[in-house]
Design brief:
Elements: H1 6-29, H2 33-36, H3 54-65, H4 72-82, H5 86-97
Helix pairs in contact: 1-5, 3-4, 3-5
Amino acid sequence: MKYKALLPLMLSAVLSASQYDDGEVFFFQKGCTSCHGNEGQGLHEFPRLANQKAKDLRKKLNAYRDDLIKTPQASIMTGYAKNLAPKEMEAIIEYLSNFKKVESGQRYDDSYEAWGDGGS
C-alpha cells in the first residue's frame, strides 16, 4: 500500500522521458536545427535555446505563434510556431529546457595508416 504514492511519481518520470525523446524528434523534423543548430546552441544571429527555462521558451513560442513579435527574425519564426501542434510545442520545450549533450565516444577513425608518398 505504501508504494501507491510512488506510482504517480514514477509514471510522470516515464512520461517526461518520452516527451523529451519526442521533443528531440520534433526539433529535428520541424527544421529548428536550421537556425538554432543541432544542439540548440544557436547559429549566427539566432539565439541559443538549449537549457533555457521552459516558461520562457513557452512564452516566446506562443508570442511567435500569435504574431505578437514584429522583427525580421519573427517573420521566420512565426511560420514555424504556427505549424506546431500543442503536443509538438510542449515536447520541444521539454527537450530544450532539459537538453543533455550526448558524447558519442570516438569521433574519428584513428586506425587509418598512411603509407607511400601520399598518392601523388
